[in-house]
Design brief:
alpha+beta; about 30% helix
């Protein structure tokens, strides 16, 4: 993907300044845009990615750009690395979000399962655990996330196992973890969770059937 030139960026800014119908914009709404620069930037990026058109609905199938891999150092900081991945997920160039299942892998009467055991059960059951590049695609394009995912709890992308290299202080006694998306009631957030901790009914692994 070629990056836009500075001239192109300035031209887009000029187009907005000279062609937007500012008289039709409510000052209160405009101030909200000003007060939330990160959200504004994210939404404007989505607008530009869609060819300068307003997105009318969430697509069922999303494209995963596999020309570059998920970079844990760039996303999370120094010391992070990938130690394990679901190779079947890495081959996916697109994901049909309507076919994503959310697995707890809990057995009868279990309230939680250790993350490493859950990972083993996912593999034994043949589930394709979606990887961190799928997570990153959704994180950077939050308009793609289905509305009903807001009620799912913590959505883990267990197809990528990360290691902190001993740089993160924690009490888990282990360094392997997976990334998660979750809705906090007002915005999407992300976190990582250790695989030697207990994973309960609200810890859902996003998977596809093989």
């Amino acid at each position: 993907m070629s990056k836009p030139s500075q001239g192109q960026v300035l031209n887009v800014i000029g187009i907005l300044m000279n062609n937007a119908d500012w008289d039709a914009v409510n000052a209160f709404i405009l101030q909200k845009v000003i007060d939330n620069p990160k959200d504004t930037g994210r939404e404007f990026t989505a607008f530009l990615k869609n060819g300068g058109r307003v997105i009318s609905g969430v697509p069922k199938v999303i494209t995963i750009d596999r020309t570059s891999a998920f970079d844990p150092v760039a996303f999370m900081g120094e010391g992070w690395s990938i130690v394990e991945q679901d190779e079947r997920s890495l081959k996916l160039g697109e994901v049909d979000l309507t076919k994503v299942n959310f697995e707890t892998m809990l057995k009868d009467r279990e309230s939680s399962v250790v993350g490493e055991e859950k990972l083993k059960r996912l593999k034994d059951a043949g589930h394709i655990s979606l990887d961190a590049k799928v997570f990153q695609t959704l994180w950077e394009n939050q308009h793609l996330i289905p509305e009903d995912w807001k009620t799912k709890g913590f959505i883990f992308f267990s197809g990528t196992v990360l290691h902190d290299g001993g740089t993160v202080l924690h009490d888990s006694g282990g360094n392997r973890c997976a990334l998660s998306l979750y809705w906090n009631g007002s915005e999407w957030c992300w976190l990582y969770y250790w695989l030697n901790n207990g994973w309960g009914a609200k810890a859902l692994s996003a998977c596809l059937e093989s």
